[in-house]
Predict the structure.
Amino acid sequence: MGRTIRLLGLALLVATSTMTTGCNLRALHIVIPDFETSQVVGVSIWKVDAGQPQGIADINFGAITMQNFGAGPIEVIEYDMTQPDGSQISMVTPVIRDPAMPGGIEIHLLFQKMVPSGLFKVSTYNAAGSSPLSTEQTYLL
């Protein structure tokens, strides 16, 4: 049932945008409604417009903590992205909570452009395994 909830909850690729920086970063806005209840530990990003889905990155979540930024403390989550070549990038992003979605989170993940533009989906994973690919997909430049 956790996988079904995650799949439905991965109506996920709510919005995306491409970062236009010299670093070739992409931004992915996702909602994981069962983040806490399913003990989600990460997200996999898949390129899906070339036939078989191609895994391009695994993002492992760290702890959610409070950090002080300008206007006061905000909740953030640390994450490490493992790229196909095995290299890792560590980042942190604010966590948005919706009272109508207890146990869920909304986040913006930045990741390095590793493959050409195309259609992408995601899946979440925990100690029990991976969810199916999201039903939603998005085009990333």
